Automatic annotation (TrEMBL):
<dbReference type="InterPro" id="IPR010426">
    <property type="entry name" value="MTTB_MeTrfase"/>
</dbReference>
<comment type="similarity">
    <text>Belongs to the trimethylamine methyltransferase family.</text>
</comment>
<dbReference type="InterPro" id="IPR038601">
    <property type="entry name" value="MttB-like_sf"/>
</dbReference>
<keyword id="KW-0489">Methyltransferase</keyword>
<dbReference type="GO" id="GO:0032259">
    <property type="term" value="P:methylation"/>
</dbReference>
<keyword id="KW-0808">Transferase</keyword>
<protein>
    <recommendedName>
        <fullName>Methyltransferase</fullName>
        <ecNumber>2.1.1.-</ecNumber>
    </recommendedName>
</protein>
<dbReference type="Pfam" id="PF06253">
    <property type="entry name" value="MTTB"/>
</dbReference>
<dbReference type="GO" id="GO:0008168">
    <property type="term" value="F:methyltransferase activity"/>
</dbReference>
<feature type="region of interest" description="Disordered">
    <location>
        <begin position="1"/>
        <end position="21"/>
    </location>
</feature>
Amino acid sequence: MTEAAPRRRARGSGGGAARRAERTSVKIETVKYIERNIPNFEVLNDEALEIIEYNAETILEEVGVNFVDNPAALERWRAAGADVQGERVRIPRGLARKLCETAPAEFTQHARNPEKSVVIGGRNMVLAPVYGPPFVRDANGGRRYATMDDFNKFVKLAYMSKWLHHSGGTVCEPTDIPVNKRHLDMLMAHMTLSDKPFMGSVTEPSRAQDSVDMAGILFGKEFVQNNTVMTSLTNINSPMTFDDVMMGSLEVYAQNMQACIISPFIVGGAMAPVSVAGTLTQVLAEVLAGIAYSQLCRSGAPAIFGAFVSSIDMNSGAPTFGTPEASLVTYGAGQLARRLGVPFRSAGSFCGSKLPDAQAAYETANSLNMGLLSGVNFMLHSCGWLEGGLVADFEKFVMDADQLGTLHGLAKGISVDENGQAMEAIREVGPGGHYLGCAHTQANFKSAFWKSDLLDYKPFEQWEEEGSRDTYALATSRVEKLLATYEQPAMDPAIKQALEEYVAEKKASMPDAFM
């Protein structure tokens, strides 16, 4: 008995039992950002690109863009050589493109865990979750206004996702916190519940400054002034209007060397022409003006060419997603961004469906693949998007996050090294054999094929015996499991205390406001 017991324990802790325990345990693993080894899909020839670029410069010179309620911006443009009449800024041909030359082609966004820092630009693609929905949905609570508790849960899920490289920004809008204070809680969540890179607030210039100040506590003030630790989303009010709130936030970030995504918000047929070429022309004109202005604020500040484009249902006026027209605009915008020499942001898990159903899956798959092939460098909304961006859905979040693994697999391309050629395996098996037991299969089976952590591949009988669960039910179970096993990443207690004191002091300095 004294010898048998240890042997039984050894068998129980190894072999099949150990493998089963390994499969069911939750691991916190984040893979490196995607490095493409496949070509970008290009839909425009050189002549078409030159026409669009010429027309965009014509818009800037003859039509101009509006910088509203922002005298400082108008003065910057006037000093740079633009024709400023009222709030209309007309930019001489070539000036905006010349100013854009100082924006870096790629840059590093540092995470508090250096192993999770990302390089944005080049042939890289960084994946970040959904941004901005006021509503959330899950299997238990249905569709409802988002709360801070929901926000924290999404940050935890993003932290635990293998395929997400970035914590994002406003993953949902926590409506139970005053408007003028919620950015502080959201930043705290990103900084303490995750150790991935994150985004700063853009809803008011003072909130952008709070983001910079809190980043200074987390990373050190001097480090922040010389390195990029945040991205921020600067939407242009298309057509061709730059408001003081967005530009005020851009000014704060650019002056502090933090990255700005300059992104027109386009619903084709409403905010831009219905034609693909016309939309691309307006997108380019707006981005040129926006990035050029960031360089007037601080030469060399990181900027990203953004393109958020959907088509429109001409009967209802609702935006539509996963359509061929949106894909063509995104492919073309990618080409224009590369010619401009700056990183490109577009695509995501876009869909117009009210539920994570077949419509959502089709439209999301079209949108994600479009992003990979168009050369996107920073993909916001890569998981969790539902109902045209009005809803962040918990089940869809983990469904999408799982499918992001396919983008990593596709981006690897095809290896033709000695192992990839597999000639020894073909010789070993010969005609009429099988490859299941050959040396090449045994050496490669763990990494040869991408495998979903969510979808069901079991035989029908086993699937039925386990409750006949569909993908939605599997996703609900995964959300519950991930949140139940979440462990907060370690953080210097002094830094955490300093952040908490900053937030408490800022909140105490002003009354609550819900507008």
